[in-house]
Specification:
This is MSHA biogenesis protein MshK. Keywords: Signal. It comes from Methylomonas rivi. By secondary structure, the protein is α+β, with helices and mostly antiparallel strands. The protein has one helix and seven strands, in the order H-E-E-E-E-E-E-E. The strands form two sheets. It has a four-stranded antiparallel β-sheet with strand order 4-5-6-7, with no helix packed on it. The chain is extended.
Length: about 110
Amino acid sequence: MFKLLVPLLGLLTAFAADAEWRDPTTPGHLSATPSSANVNAPSSFTLSAILITDGGKRAIINGMTLKAGEYLDDDTRLLKILPGHVLIRQHDSVKKLALVPSVKKPLK
């Protein structure tokens, strides 16, 4: 029995190493990697979470936890944090980063 168990465990381990693991808390229709949700948004900024508590609002963009008014880089500032998206000012234009991509179908 033990001789059969060792090769079986080896196969299971090899299979598990090749399998693609997905975060179980991510909805099935979204990718596990965060992405910027707006076509107008710069590809270099990724909104991954919005935290709204009694203590204030914070957004996690590119791994940095920021509040409104703080800078992401030299010329990009977080303007406003809303429940589903944030507004940033970059190069004198306002852009929207959303948590979930909007789903729009073209009219036929």
